[in-house]
């Protein structure tokens, strides 16, 4: 079946659900009930800060914040506090591109090479055939998160030119357009396509095409002055019973390579304005985007797997990716949503268009389970109304999932470790190079052996021995995915110690060859 036929079938399935979604909705958000949900999530997951807002029929019916921008410093979070929205940036990037399509400056089916002549993929045919639309729907054939080590951990010195060059060396995981695998690098390319077509850098374009016309006045992207802007939440990681700030901002927040994929920061008020615009735009914004492009962004472009959790929790029958949005059905109700995750920051935008409702969640701590539970409980208020589907209910289901996970999917016990010595690894010491990641040194550091990546300074750690294996214990605790190290005739290979670690730690895509001796 051709990709076009697949999209047509999935879109028909989406439309088939719309009659079910037309059922009457509950009265506007019950503040007392939502407050209780908010309080329970905040307490259960010991979050440093939480912001929640709900939109119904184009107006904000609930807005609440709690916690601190930096835990322990006393500055309270409010509806104007800036959070990293992470991958919720992607829908802003696709909206920017859609505005350019409306203006006749770009077509979704333009070859990427029309705008970026140097664009290449590992398979030359894929590079020639890839269209702008393909950059947005995770069908490149690369492994999920492939090449993300050029984006994270931050800071690093990789440029967007490095990303475009590096894509030519990333080997595919599957055939082009044959399946869904989440991809951040293609959104970096999409940002550069927008810049070429729009005649301005990506950061200027998204301000011009999205923030300014929609009145998202607090949103920031690119380089900005944190002191002048003020009221900025900082990310946190868990350290025992404490929330500890991690990768805190300096006075100047620099532009980053990853801006088009996840670099925007906005306040709760901004994100509620963004959500309301999609559900029921104000008359002054009615012409911001044509109906044709609004439909294109929410049309199923790439089928996604329907997980066991989706089937059991939501009675879902379809799942697909649009342009920067995830699409699914929940209890027969159409859902449009996306999440955002960066170190110490979690966000979610969820909309039920046929209910006229949507909500925004912003968290400045380790909030994966908190986001999942809060999203589920709020969605079910509109699609089910069953009071038993509570915070405690979904927290218990997550605990059960974790307990049932097989040992092969859990991090092994590496507590019995010791530092490797230079003598043990003497035959392997040297300078190594990967064609897309660049150089790394595996060299003596006193009595120990240290791995140090040239262009990613946080990937710096001491090699440990665990039984007959080697792993890298990163110096910076915010780099929360240790790496196994193995050697073969071809060079050095890395892999994740914890199989559940974030896929953006794509150690498996590295292929280091030794190119020199240690200095």
From TrEMBL:
Beta-lactamase-related domain ranges (all copies): 34-370
GO molecular function, one term: hydrolase activity
PANTHER family named among the record's database cross-references: BETA-LACTAMASE-RELATED DOMAIN-CONTAINING PROTEIN (PTHR46825:SF15), D-ALANYL-D-ALANINE-CARBOXYPEPTIDASE/ENDOPEPTIDASE AMPH (PTHR46825)
Protein name per its UniProtKB record: Serine hydrolase
UniProt keyword Aminoacyl-tRNA synthetase, yes or no: no
Keywords: Hydrolase, Signal
Record's signal peptide: 1-23
Pfam families in the cross-refs: Beta-lactamase (PF00144)
Origin superkingdom: Bacteria
UniProt source species: Lysobacter arvi
The keyword NAD belongs to this UniProt entry's keyword annotation: no
InterPro entries found in the cross-reference section: AmpC-like, Beta-lactam-related, Beta-lactam/transpept-like
